[in-house]
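writing this on my phone so excuse typos. first protein, seq and then structure
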Amino acid sequence: MDPARQREIASQGGRAAHRSGNAHQFTSEEAREAGRKGGQASHNGRSGKAS
């Protein structure tokens, strides 16, 4: 599927979710925690040294 068309479809779904009240809106604390978890997951098992 064309990436532009895929974005358009996803955007429509997001707007519909917000209109119906089903969309989740992160608080700053939730966003901070999600970012922390993502950072840990992406660096899991890395020593930080070039091999």
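second protein below, same order as before
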Amino acid sequence: MKIGVVGDRDTAIGFRLAGLVDVYEVNNKEEAAKAIKELAEREDIGLIITTERIGEEIRDVINSVEKVVVEIPDKNGPIVREHDPIRTLVRKAVGVDMK
């Protein structure tokens, strides 16, 4: 299975330098949504990587695809969230809050 990437210019360049081919450089949320949908329809793509900022803008599209989508920080660093989804999942699964 291949990895697809949807990101800003810097993210796209980084993943291309790492050897990935299925990399979409996007400039707005419409382009990002289109790229995510295209990657999700491909049989050879098993994982889609995007930035947290793009993920926040097109959350409804990401939630509608059946592929695994991983959100990573961009060059500006991680988004500080009041609600951490990973922390919530761990609390539900294990019954213990992590710090």
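The longest helix spans residues 29-41. thats all i got for now
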